[in-house]
Design brief:
Layout (H helix, E strand, L loop, with lengths): L4 E6 L4 E8 L3 E9 L1 H5 L6 H23 L8 E7 L3 H18 L3 E5 H7 L11 E6 L4 E6 L6 E5 L5 H11 L7 H9 L22 H17 L5 H26 L4 E5 L6 H11 L6 E3 L3 H4 L4 H12 L17
Parallel strand pairs: 1-4, 4-5, 6-9, 9-10
Antiparallel strand pairs: 1-2, 2-3, 6-7, 7-8
The chain binds 5'-O-[(R)-(carboxyoxy)(hydroxy)phosphoryl]adenosine (KG4) and zinc ion.
5'-O-[(R)-(carboxyoxy)(hydroxy)phosphoryl]adenosine binds next to helix 5 and helix 6.
């Protein structure tokens, strides 16, 4: 049988990414052009700058992915592109590149939800087993997603305010660390002890929703109050305490949901999945539950990439999902 080759395109935020995935599982190319250096001095992603970089990079990144995969347009089974959620101007570059290629080379086109991509990053390292639960923690999202089969996503809990990554980035900024702050807090937390008392937002009994803005404010207030009193706070201890609070809530809720929904697999997904403390805490939470398989993706599949978008595209293609040239960027796309 002929191989299925999906070209994935991802431009929802600050990475211009293109990948080629064979038969839904094998990465033949996974090119990511990061813009982090251009956004750093602004302390966060500037949408207009992101769009401009995507325009400059997209053609080269597509050509590089095809070169690395050793294929040309005639070999591609379908093009999968992130249609949302994300920055509208950034998404538009990927969507229009995908539509142009689809039209010019007569290749089927498929729109993909960015978060489903983060979840499917796990399929590039292992077979998915249903029913499963995905803990998605990224810069824009914090969600518990239940899947009873391929391409079926039920959000059973989500953040009511800040996403986990957003809280990391804001706390990092308060501690004068560069953007994106998550990895810096993670590193600093390893050097400190979680001795500072910070709140945990459990919300109503039984809720799988999250809230991180109270925690973020508590960190800022702790620093501010100490400054006013002339006290010294060890930033490493503050980072460790913040990280422990985030992880405690994420892991407790994921564990409870996994048991209640009787899942076979738990997947970690999204940029914050790169967090060392979170990876370790999840691993030890599930170590005594052999009937649930915990899957944690390697670091290069945690942050934004296009292989994960192609991985979803593969499944949607099999299911017969196709987009036409009316496909548009949808910054608020629902799962
Ligand atoms: O998934 P992602 O690449 O982009 C979105 O779709 O949002 O996630 C980026 C987020 C940023 O907030 C970044 O600070 C966070 O992931 N992040 C981390 C770590 N590495 C990246 N947060 C905590 N610890 C890390 N090691
Ligand atoms: Zn992402």
């Amino acid at each position: 049988m002929k191989d299925q080759l999906i070209l994935g395109i991802e431009t929802s935020c600050d990475e211009t990414a293109v990948a080629v995935v064979r038969n839904g599982r094998d990465i033949l190319a996974n090119v990511v052009a990061s813009q982090i250096e251009s956004h750093k001095r602004f302390g966060g992603v500037v949408p207009e700058i992101a769009s401009r970089h995507h325009v400059e990079e997209i053609t080269f990144v597509i050509e590089e992915a095809l070169r690395q995969a050793g294929i040309d347009y005639n070999d591609i089974t379908a093009i999968a592109v992130t249609e949302g959620p994300g920055l509208v101007g950034a998404l538009l570059i990927g969507v229009n590149a995908a539509k142009a290629l689809s039209f010019a080379h007569n290749i089927p086109l498929i729109g993909v939800h960015h978060i489903s991509g983060h979840i499917y990053a796990n399929r590039l390292i292992t077979e998915l087993k249903f029913p499963l639960l995905a803990l998605v923690v990224s810069g824009g999202h914090t969600e518990l997603v239940y899947m009873k089969e391929h391409a079926s996503f039920e959000v059973i809990g989500e953040t009511r305010d800040d996403a986990a990554g957003e809280a990391y980035d804001k706390v990092a900024r308060t501690l004068n660390m560069p953007y994106p702050g998550g990895p810096h807090i993670d590193r600093l937390a390893q050097e400190g002890e979680p001795v500072i008392k910070l709140p945990r937002s459990w919300l109503e009994e039984g809720s799988y929703d999250f809230s991180f803005s109270g925690l973020k404010s508590a960190v800022i207030n702790t620093l501010h109050n100490a400054e006013q009193r002339g006290d010294h706070i060890n930033p490493a201890d503050l980072a460790a305490s913040f990280q422990e609070s985030v992880i405690d809530v994420l892991v407790t809720k994921a564990l409870r949901a996994a048991k209640e929904y009787n899942v076979t697999q738990v997947l970690l997904a999204g940029g914050v999945a790169a967090n060392k403390g979170l990876r370790a805490a999840l691993t030890s939470a599930f170590v005594d539950i052999p009937e649930i398989e915990l899957v944690i993706p390697p670091l290069y599949l945690c942050t934004d990439n296009a292989a994960m978008i192609a991985a979803v595209g593969s499944v949607l293609y099999e299911k017969g999902k196709r987009a036409d040239l009316a496909l548009n960027a949808n910054p608020g796309l629902e799962m």
